[in-house]
Design brief:
Shape: globular
Order of helices and strands: EEEHEEEHEHEHEE
Number of helices: 4
Radius of gyration: 18 Å
Helix content: 10-25%
Amino acid sequence: MGLINNKRIPVIIILGNHDIYRENIYNDNDFFNRFSKYCSDLENLNVILLRNDIYEDRYVRFVGFELPTYTYHSCNSIDLEKDFYNNLDINLFISKNNKLNVCVVHNPINICNKEIKNILKNFDVILAGHMHNGLVISFVDRISKNNWGLIDPDKKFFSKVSRNIIKIRRNKYLIISGGITKLSNRSGIFKYGNFLFPMEIDIINFNGKAKE
């Protein structure tokens, strides 16, 4: 938890595909034990880990979705995501009129699809990452504020859901964070090219007051 003006500010996270990168995680005892310890250590640090769960306070309602690893790189990922969302507890998708309703999900690539967008229609804001800002280099990123990227994590070119803010309905937005590191250590020699890309930490201001 952070401290601002002597008040505790909750730290809320979800897991992404690099946190659970093995589909057989539950059959690998060593990895599963280390993963379980990681999750319990987060709890001991008062970090709120949402795994298809809800956290809410007086003003904001967060729902964190953890997409299964098999949805990330499949040719029918849209259908797999639809099945995933449709099999979750319906209470996760119920909005509260007196609060800002925020969805947090790692992969945004299918959110603008009509069916997925309809499932998530009750959220005011959807926060996502995963796209590494489309690997758009810094000087282009500064002058071009559209949503296109150069290449996505599936090595597909010119994804139009890669970065910045996308309006998905009236007063409802998808915000895609570019993240800190664009090229991981697993990128081999290419990791030394990270200086070409912007490091991004997003500060989001919301206008208006919650209804009492």
